[in-house]
Amino acid sequence: MTHDPVVEVLQDPAHGFTGVPRQRGSAAELRVRLYRTGTDLRMLAIPRGISASDSAEWHEALLEVPAEELLDRANRLLAIWRDQVVGRIDTGGGDGGQVGGFPMADSVDLTELRALTDPLVAKLADEGFELLQVLLDGTSYDLGRFREFLLEALAGGQQLRISFDSEWQLPWSMLAVDPAECDSPWEAFLGHRHQIEQARTGYPWDHAPLGRRERATVSLNKDIFLDHVNRSHEVQKLLEERSLLTVRTRGSELLEALARSVLTEDLMYFWCHGRFVSTGASGQVLTVRLSDSEDIDGPVVKRQRRRYIRSPQSRFKPFVLLNACHSARGAAPGRLKHLGQELIDQGADGVLAPQIEIPEDFAAEYAYAFLDRYLTGDDTAGAIGQALVRRFAREFHNPLALVYSLNSGMNTRLDLVS
What we know:
6-stranded mixed sheet, 418 residues, disordered N terminus, 30% helix, 10 helices
């Protein structure tokens, strides 16, 4: 069988005279790359199908913000969400909960707390816009033109599919355009306006095929001490009814599965705790545990699958819902990769995970809503993620769906033909 080569044109000096015109109705895409050049940062944006007069060009500029300041600002934004949303304590000032409780973490439905959530969401949108401004701030002409293009694209009325290719997993979905230009603060967040992913870098490879299947193969990797959480049993029942389900409760079972050359799972669901473990004076790595004391982290996953990497006789292509605190956080360049990053490197189609601590009840509710739609095979992970951001905002007045970050997999959908 012959295959047509795929070519991506990054610049077009001939102004389209030798190219194929863009097809009407194609989805608008934006690829954004943030990378180092020496000690500086550069940003590159490649639009496809965006309604702008210069959409056939690529855009690039040298940033003026130091990398260290940008990372500190990103961590600050995550800390604000952690402290002001998940960790907010009711002091009896009218939040509507029990004094000493956590009003925004104790319930999924925050509709009755609109007096609290409305100003808080407005503040979070302002903080997200501030980080975007810090990223693009500067006085050079090229940076000004780049900033003009990118802000226009992000704030325009056209919904985009945006891939951010960066050395660092910044909280892209929690960034925002100018809230003053939006009908509501909710609509300012990039994760509300667009489908967003932290892009995969490197070339894909061929995996061992599975052939046509009637049902999805799924694993539930869980900590049984979370069985008390509302909806967690319903999530497991959903998986039992809609897939061929394997349940693992011990780290040794998971490691044994990862050591096989062919892992036939279409979807891996983790329902457990995540935590950072120190690896030395200045390092730490994200690890999860099931119901035992076995730490599962990036290095152990790499060890289990080292001999299979990029082999066409092996297979590891699940979409992963890593429902554990912090598990969307990425390690800095040059450090040991965190679990989600290593799963991507080993071939996973995508990893969806929270960037901060996540309340257990919300995590279970989010998992049920996502899995219920993903297992139909009708929608992509990116479309479902954006839909859930909007749904939780509309129905529950809850912003926490924005903290779930998609590492690759924006265009992934359940496909039972391999």
